[in-house]
Structure formats: structure tokens, C-alpha cells
Fold this protein.
Amino acid sequence: MLLSHLNFAKKVAIWQKTAALLSLITLNAMAQEVGQRERLVSPELKDDNTVVFSIRAPKAENVTLSGNWMPMVPDGNQGMKRQTVALTKDGQGVWSATVGPLEPELYGYSFLVDDVTTLDPSNLMVARDGTFRTESLLYVPGDASDLYWAKTGPKGSVHQIWYESPTLDLTRRMFVYTPPGYHESKEDYPVLYLLHGGGGDEEAWPTLGVAPTILDNLINSGKAKPMIVVMTNGNPTQASAQTISPKLPKVEQSARGMANMMFEKSLVNDVIPYIENNFRVKANKENRALTGLSMGGLQTINTSFENPNLFDYIGVMSMGFADLSRFGIEVDHSKRAQQILALKEADPELYWIACGKDDFLYESVVTMRNELDKQDFDYKYRESIGGHTWSNWRIYLSEFAPMLFK
Amino acid sequence: MLLSHLNFAKKVAIWQKTAALLSLITLNAMAQEVGQRERLVSPELKDDNTVVFSIRAPKAENVTLSGNWMPMVPDGNQGMKRQTVALTKDGQGVWSATVGPLEPELYGYSFLVDDVTTLDPSNLMVARDGTFRTESLLYVPGDASDLYWAKTGPKGSVHQIWYESPTLDLTRRMFVYTPPGYHESKEDYPVLYLLHGGGGDEEAWPTLGVAPTILDNLINSGKAKPMIVVMTNGNPTQASAQTISPKLPKVEQSARGMANMMFEKSLVNDVIPYIENNFRVKANKENRALTGLSMGGLQTINTSFENPNLFDYIGVMSMGFADLSRFGIEVDHSKRAQQILALKEADPELYWIACGKDDFLYESVVTMRNELDKQDFDYKYRESIGGHTWSNWRIYLSEFAPMLFK
């Protein structure tokens, strides 16, 4: 293990050095932009998985680090806030802190420089978390995070595709992952439909969710069957992630849109037929799986209840039978028992529910399990540590995918 | 025009409002993260194309804005720096400045908060400029930037594909754009190979270069023929953009790698055969085009000289016959006249050279044109304003693509 960390740290150093060398040809232009200042190495991962974070801020009075490995603590104002770590300043105005050792994981973090949220200027690994924020990324290698990064070996392709959704009256974008070997073979493949959460869009699972890489690694190690993975945009008002174009149509709609079943209708009427007409797909219940997180979990519940014979594998992540009335979302509970019985009758191979102990929707999962139990509905339950986080959703995907199509 | 700007501003407002509503379901989690602070709107584009930039920084003593629409000025230390705009603070600790009116364009910018480079926390549109930086993006709509954003209408697909490069002994990633209609039709298509610059990677043209959107818009308006566009990684030592995996192999290599012709060899021996075997392609000289910027311009020159009968359309952006000896890159000049004559004999349909008046490589283009003129070599020259910038490269692509395959 230590050796592989050494290799990793060395590789990062080589990468940074080589990147600098390859940049030489635009050095003139560059020098104008960044001045003559030496580039810091941040974050710097040490052999023991401690990490040194650094930022140059000579005039700042207070610099802290906020990373999603840190716990939430009371903010003194009836809310919660993420715990932070204080950095200390050296004689050159560089602030730094050593953190950890950290568990293997893909982390997001940012600095607070005199309370201004600042991405790490030395770190080019940045991801957007839906409409919430952008954050700097840190990968700590190890067994628990081994699925999250590309390695040598065969790889799937990711296709950004626009399709017509007559249901939503939009031309919409989705990402379709085809597994290693898809383009060389003549085989048909099973399909997993993978839904993001509220505030997210079709870029969520391919980026922070690292779904394509997780699938490559699971498939290459024989843990999951080769499958197609379809990552849609679950916001029924949105043609695509709006960062790619404010010019695309966007229907004004309230939060109620999340429960108006329009996305679910478009998934069944528009997305699945498109996939089954345009990819080499085993187009039957036995070879269709559906899972989603949070809002996508709600859409998974809704879709499986409305279409009990469509999917043989159903996964609900970080969502249950939630009371959404405070958001103006009213759910018709009277149909529930009937829907559960219809799905029980359809007898899917797997109904899987996963939630973290600290998830703010945990109680909704308890409610859901109680209602399923009342009807003797057969499901598997996976309770993890942690809350409503990408860390958990990557783990859930890593566990759900291997159970499919077997 | 004014009306369309109103619409645009309104759309952005609607987008932000709807995004906030769609996020409600994770509001509990969110509130913990961002505290109770109201989200600023920044940048705020006004009807007259002035733009208000804002950032909350109550403790800061000095906040400036650095945007790539601003000119370079002497830094007082024999170098150049980007001119900045000072922001002023209101009673709530929010700093802001009104800039412009700005010309229609896709801009990158950042704040300097007490000299710390800070992306705009209110703006989720962020792009990575190779190994140089990440920056916040601002789109100012208008005729000159109309090609750069997705609109309604048919759209091409973008495929992230891994291919074997025996030449470089790497499994490598590239982006392949297939035009609107490709998947429905049975036709074969011409191919444009589109190369990025030093410090960049295969993500450069699809993101900052917005090549897929430019092509969609050119093709849908009938200005360019439908074509496939191949966006490779031009760093011969790199499997892919290293932000996606430090675990992938990366060969340690000096800047000399840029001139060792290995990428050019892999383009001809690995990339082109892969494309011609895996896509519906018109596999002949008349239907192959090659262009690249800066380092990719050098690779374009090299490839066209070494393979005079491969491409009928060749475009060199922001590069000429540069003296790269200060970077340890020695070019064998003795073959040049002979190479020019061989290419003249092959008689390509178009040899196009584009450069900005302020480009730091401008003199290399003068040298190149002189040497081509000496051999009576037929080329077209496009001189633009500005320098070594994505603004120019997007314009060049917008002008080059319509001249192809006609």
C-alpha cells in the first residue's frame, strides 16, 4: 500500500512537471497572466495519506479549509455548518494546513479566505455540484476509492446525445455509457437507467458520480456484467444542463414539477424507446434496471409504481415515502398500497433501498419500509454510514451494478 | 437586438429561479452548507451589454476583477499583466463593479480578493483552460457570439472514446463529434481533425473551444457541410486529460516531445485508421481536413509536410515557422523547401494560415509566409486582431469549417 501511494505521489509530481514543460510553448503568454510567481503544489498527498493544503494569500487575516470529509457542527444559529480547519501563514504569505490521514475517497473542498469561498488555485481538478457550487477535488487512493479513477485496460465510451422528448416538448440531452467491447461486438446489452438528484442535471453522474469509470472498473474486474448506462436530465423543464446554453428553452415551472410525473412519463415514452431503437439493447424487463438518488429516487419509486412490468431491477437511493407538502408537493397516498401490491405481483428480481444513517430523508425511508412490510413486499435494504452525499451514491452504484442482470 | 437581450436576461433570471426551486428537496442539506446567506446574482448582464460583477467579501481591503476582454499592460517589472477593474464595497460587504458594454463573446474572468485569485462563487459556469487555470465564464450574446451557444434545432453527438495507440504505447482518449443526422442517415461523412495547443488536452476544443456547438450552428444554418470532427489529445505522453486519472500511465518526457513527431505519427497511424474503421467516413484525401492551434498548429504543419497526400484542407492557427530552440526544440530546416515543394505538388484544395496581429508567435507566421512565398506555394492568409486567445481560435474554427469539403 505504501508503495502504491509513493507511486501515486510521484506520478502527480511527474504530471505537474510534465504539464509545466508541455506548456512552454505558450510560456510567453502564460508569464503575462500568472506573473513570475512559483506555482504551489496543493493539495500535496503524503505517503501516509495526510494531505497538505496551501494557498498564497499574504494579505488575508484568516484562512480556513472546508472539505466534505469534515463533520457538520452546529453553527450557533440553530443551523448546521461544516467544520473547518484553520491554516497558518508562513513568511512568504503562504497559508497551509496538514490534514488527515484521510480515508481513501474522492473529496470536494474549498478554502475560506477571510470568509470568501475560494477554489484551490493550484488544483485544476474542479467539479460542479449541480446548481449548488463548484469545488476543488482531491483523490485519496486506496481500496475504498479504487473504483473511482480510470486505469489501464479496456474502457467504455460516453456519448452525449440529444433526443426528442415529445412528452416534454423539448430536444434534450443525455449521456449514454456503452461498455468496453460494445463497439467491437455484435451482442445486445442490458440497460441501467441512472437518475440524478434535485439541483443536478445530466452531467452529475458522469462527473461527481464518476459512473463511467466505476462501470469500467466493475466490468473489467468481472464484478458487473457489461451494460449500457443511461444518464438523463431529470428536470422536466430543462433541455440540458443550463451551463451549456441559456439559449435553450426552459419552461418556467414550480418545484411541483418534481412530482408532476412529467419526467417519469418522458423516461418511459421518450428515453427508453430512443435507447432501444438506437443502441444494441436487450429490450425486455429482465434486462432493464432503474435507480436514482434523492429526487431521482422519488422518480424511481414513481416510475416503478406506474410501470410495474418495465424493470426487473429497481434501486432507490437516499429517498423514501417523504412528506413533501412543505415544498408544495402533494402525493396521493391512497393509491400506495394498491401500487405496492401491483409491483409485488410483477415480482421484480430486485427492489433495493439504500440510505445513510445520517440522511435528512432517513425517516422517509423508515416510512417506506414500513409500508412495504405491511404488504409483505420483498426488498433488500442497505443502510450505510453518512448522509445525503456523493460519497454514498458512488458506493451505492458500486454495490447496485454488480447485482444486475444475473 | 435589445429585445433578444431582454429575453436573454429574463431567461437567466428564470433559470436561476427555477434552479433554486428544483433544489428545494435538498434544501435541508443545502442550508447547512451555505448558511442562510442570499445568493448574489453575478455576473448580471444588463440590456445594454454592461455587466455587473459582484462578490461578498466583507473583510477584504481590495477586490479587483480580471477578465480576458481587458488589455494587457506593463506590470512594472519588465513583464505584462492583465489590466484589472476595481470593485467597490457596499454596506453589506458586497463588492461590485459595472463593466462594459462588452462586445458579444464568451469571456473568462476571475476576481482578485486581496490578491487571491477567486472564481465567482455566484457563477456555476466554470471552465478549465488546460494546465493553466480554471475561470468563470460569461456569455455576452449578439451576432459575434451567436455560434457559441446551443439553440433549438438538430444537434450532433459527442463521443468520448478510448482507442489503442500502438505508436505511443497508450490507450488514449479522444472526443468525436458526429453531426446532426449522422445516426439517422446511412451516408458517409468527411472528417476534420482538430488539434489543441500546448498545455491543453482533448477537453480543450469541446469546452473552451465550444467546437460541437459551433459545428451544430454552422451545419444547421447551411454554412458548413455536415462533418465528423475528431478532437484528440495532442500530448504524446498522456493517455488523457490528467484530471480524469493520475492512475493512467504518463511517460516522463521533456518539452522536446512536442517536436519529436510522435503525436503526428500516432495521428496518422492510429487515430485516422480508428476513425475510418469505426465511423461512416469518406476515407480519402478530398474528405480529410486538419487544423490546430499553437502546438496543434505546429503538429498540423509537421503532419501535412510529412504526409502531403493525406489532407485536402489544412489550417494552421497561431503558429508558423517558429524558432523553438530556446525550448530545446530543434527543427531541421534543411528539409523545409523540399517539404513545401512536395506539398505544392500534392496541391491541397486549401492551405489556410490564421494569426492575430498581437500574437507572440506573429513573427513565426511572417517567416512561414516568406518561405512559402519563395516556393510559390498557394495559401490563404487570415490576419485577425488580438493575440493567442480562445476568442481567436473560436473565430478561426467558425471561418475554417465553412470552407471545407466544397
